Protein: GT4 family glycosyltransferase
Amino acid sequence: MRGDRLSSVSPAAALPGPVPDRAAFCAAVSAPPGSKLIFAGGYLDPTHGVKDAVIAFDMLRYESPALQLVLTGAGPGRTAAEDLGRALAFDDCRIRFSGGWPDLAAATQLAEIVWVTCSRGGEHLALRAMAAGRPVVAFHTPELAEIIDDGETGYLVPQGDRAAIAMKSHMLLAYPQTAARMGEAGRKRAAERFGVARMAEQHMRVYREVVG
Structure:
């Protein structure tokens, strides 16, 4: 198809609602109160890299006993993810599941870091994290490279490199001021380039072009 026949509409992320009570959220996911949370998942299947997230967390969990991995969403891979987590850390499994938590966009503000371990896609997960002001550590995909400014709003690592996910997360946990800076840069980028109003305007532009 010729380039003049193509139009691009950016994905969008709405601003999250009020931050939920941390103790209430931790209780809902069976995590100790005051836990440091890392969010990953989105949908629990191989495409969303649930196994990669669990293995990366096993490398990182020695960083602090307060760290918990929260796999968000639902899907057929929940049992496999839980079994893998227990196999890797049978005496200290810290894999949690958000289940039916009603507002994950708001809850994302409780996370220290958000991982996007998708083999493709993952834009909505990255934008949800950025809108919440959280730094993102993600596998490098063409889609995410359009959204995440590597080294500014988060980190992009080679596809499938679980050790790199853990290493970059270690850096963010060790330097909270860097994590805060990246989170604020992500919030600003999401508002300026991926706001709902901008997406609606782009759709309207396409409709006007189509109708002449």
The chain is about 45% helix and 15% strand.
